[in-house]
Specification:
GO terms for molecular function: protein serine/threonine phosphatase inhibitor activity. It comes from Gymnodraco acuticeps (Antarctic dragonfish). The chain is 51% helix and 0% strand. The protein is an all-alpha fold. α2 runs antiparallel to α5.
Length: 120
């Protein structure tokens, strides 16, 4: 069959609707409401949290206990409230967790709470 060019499948593309906005314009609108630097900082913090949880629980991602550290929830609390909430979330962890808690509290200083659809 491969030797017969007339029987081969073809993929056809149609021109897109001209009324759609290009992807970069949508991104531009997003970064007007949510500063791109703030979004990147938040992403970096979330990646740091993920890596630290792997170290704290000393296991693969699938084996980490169900744990959700909500940055926005922490930002609503006072300094001691943040520390207490993190200790509650990490109570199953047998390793020392003070370095993780101190590191996270340091990283979220000055971070603003996100509102609306981008929040998990």
């Amino acid at each position: 069959m491969a030797s017969e060019p007339s029987t081969q499948s073809r993929v056809m593309f149609q021109a897109g609707d001209k009324t759609e906005e290009p992807a970069h314009r949508k991104l531009g609108k997003l970064t007007v409401k949510y500063n791109r630097k703030d979004l990147q900082r938040r992403l970096d913090i979330e990646e740091w949290i993920d890596g630290q949880l792997h170290l704290l629980f000393d296991c693969e991602e699938e084996e980490i206990p169900e744990l959700e550290i909500d940055i926005d929830e922490l930002l609503e609390l006072t300094g001691e409230g943040q520390r207490t909430r993190l200790q509650e979330l990490l109570q199953e962890c047998e390793k020392p967790k003070e370095d993780f808690i101190n590191g996270l509290l340091y990283r979220i200083k000055g971070l603003r709470k996100m509102s609306g659809p981008l929040k998990k």
